[in-house]
Amino acid sequence: MSSSVPNSDRKIVTGPAGYILEDVPHFTDDFPDHPTYPNPLQDNAAYSVVKQYFVDEDDTVPQKIVVHPDSPRGTHFRRAGPRQRVYFEPDDVLACIVTCGGLCPGLNTVIREIVCGLSYMYGVKRILGIDGGYRGFYARNTIHLDLKTVNDIHRSGGTILGTSRGGHDTTKIVDSIQDRGINQVYIIGGDGSQKGAAAIFKEIKKRGLKVAVAGIPKTIDNDIPIIDRSFGFDTAVEEAQRAINAAHVEATSFENGIGLVKLMGRYSGFIAMYATLASRDVDCCLIPESPFFLEGPGGLFEFIDKRLKESGHMVIVIAEGAGQDLLAESMEESTTLKDASGNKLLQDIGLWISQRIKDHFAKKMTLTLKYIDPTYMIRAIPSNASDNVCCTLLAQSAVHGVMAGYNGFTVGLVNGRHTYIPFYRITEKQNKVVITDRMWARLLSSTNQPSFMKQDKIHSNQLVGEPGTMKW
Ligand SMILES: Nc1ncnc2c1ncn2[C@@H]1O[C@H](COP(=O)(O)OP(=O)(O)O)[C@@H](O)[C@H]1O
Ligand SMILES: O=P(O)(O)OC[C@H]1O[C@](O)(COP(=O)(O)O)[C@@H](O)[C@@H]1O
Ligand SMILES: [Mg+2]
Predict the structure, then answer these.
(1) Among 257, 273, 349, 352, which residue's Cα sits nearest to residue 307?
(2) Looking at the predicted complex, does its ipTM rise above 0.95?
(3) Is the CB of residue 192 below 6 angstroms from any atom belonging to ligand 1?
(4) Which residues pair with residue 37 across a beta bridge?
(5) Which of 93, 302, 336, 377 has the smallest set of CB atoms within 10 Å of its CB?
(6) Pairwise CA distance, residues 312 & 300, whole Å
């Protein structure tokens, strides 16, 4: 027998054997008599051959799938997908889509598939694009979106709607949603954007508006928790191979050649880690989560010297957020600049560490170092085939959820199943590489690099975190 646990902004349902459902808000929470309509999908030719195409109301997905015989069933999330009844009539819908934050491969595919899903599956005709991120709600005209305007956009990188950082004024945004009569808001963005979505949802609830807010997580860094991975990540790892291959060619073409590649990863080093594991030509991978030092026994310079003596060349991959502490120490005044959204503005660690390596070895050996920075080339390309499928299923899941009356959720893959995740779980922390995890051990064993850690630090509690959510 399940019971709901009263909590101001959380819908927790408990069940036998430690079952917990962290549910998402629904229109009927505030509008119990909200009219419902048969899902038009039942008359849709594409679905009519599929026997069970509506998701069962009790379908939920476990957050943890590695369990013991006596493990409590633990946290579950509501499964995504179409329901028997919908809470919007097609002609009543005025939907809008906004893209926020940094670019990521697949943004246009998500936009395209939200428009196609609303149009083809639910017969919705009125869909607006918000120009240039959150500030576009109140500072710009809207962009008309229909099947024709989005038909080919998935072939281009970036976002046809434009994006921005900063400019999130909750009152002005919700005023604009209310004045325009918008009743569905699809927000495609990273950790910052999802926090912004939560603030918008809270204001909409406070005003008692019948408006659905859905987040689609976008993070090339993979710094959003709970979800298996973000769209665009696979494309980024694949594209990074080209830079790593170039670095390997340069490094092997000169005596004591070093190819150094900087990849995205402000706080989380997933791209650097997976690009290194995919390449097998990388001798050293440096990420923000794994501190390292340059001089002395066990330091980076000692390892470079050893590896060059062994093979005469070396490839180093460094995430842009790695080593920022070392760089800051070397500067007279400590500058912690932030971008318009409050994210840390990084110094170019690739340039700095390249110069430090050249200076260190200048009097010791003939060394040729080539520094490659493909960061923006990687995030500005269109998504690959795998990510296009990921974008399509994410977008369709978001549309199904909103039409079924769910609200205040971020859609995401959890253990290979699409789910609706409450905003507070998405925004409560950032997803980071846990260097005491087996995945990082696989990385170290693939490059044979040292951990650059002093033994006493490796097992201190500051390093042991929850296992990362990468499900690969
Ligand atoms: N805590 C927050 N509350 C409300 N809006 C936020 C918050 N953090 C970021 N935002 C807004 O979300 C948008 C995107 O955030 P940003 O961090 O730049 O990129 P991303 O969402 O990709 O991580 C920006 O317009 C920013 O102003
Ligand atoms: O777009 P900017 O301001 O150059 O920011 C670069 C940052 O954007 C990212 O590509 C993605 O960051 P967001 O998730 O905040 O959009 C980071 O990897 C990188 O550090
Ligand atoms: Mg972010």
Answers:
(1) 257
(2) yes
(3) yes
(4) 86
(5) 336
(6) 16
Find out whether 170 and 199 touch, Cβ atoms under 8 Å.
yes
Query: How many CA atoms are closer than 13 Å to the CA of 369, on its beta-carbon side?
Result: 22
45 phi, psi to nearest 5 deg: -55, -40
pTM given for the model: 0.95
Measured from the CB, is residue 191 less than 6 Å from ligand 1?
yes
The label of the residue with tokens 């906004």 reads: 98
Ligand nearest to the CA of 341: 1
What is the 123 CA–ligand 3 centroid distance (Å)? 33
Enter the tokens of residue 347: 């110094």
323 known member of a binding site: no
Contact criterion met (CB below 8 Å) for 372 and 259 = yes
State pLDDT tens for residues 222-243. Answer: 999 999 999 999 999 999 999 9
Q: Can you tell me the distance from the alpha carbon of 64 to that of 158, in angstroms, rounded to the nearest whole number?
A: 34
Residues with CB under 6 A from ligand 2: 101-102, 190, 192, 219-221, 264-266, 320, 339, 343, 379
Count CA atoms closer than 13 A to 431's CA, side-chain side. 26
Nearest bound ligand to CA 266?
Answer: 2
Q: Tell me the H-state helices in 45-190.
A: 45-48, 107-116, 122, 136-139, 147-150, 170-180
CA distance 242 to 275: 10
Q: Give the pLDDT confidence of 257-293 residue by residue, as tens digits.
A: 999 999 999 999 999 999 999 999 999 999 999 999 9
Per-residue tokens: 45 = 């030719």
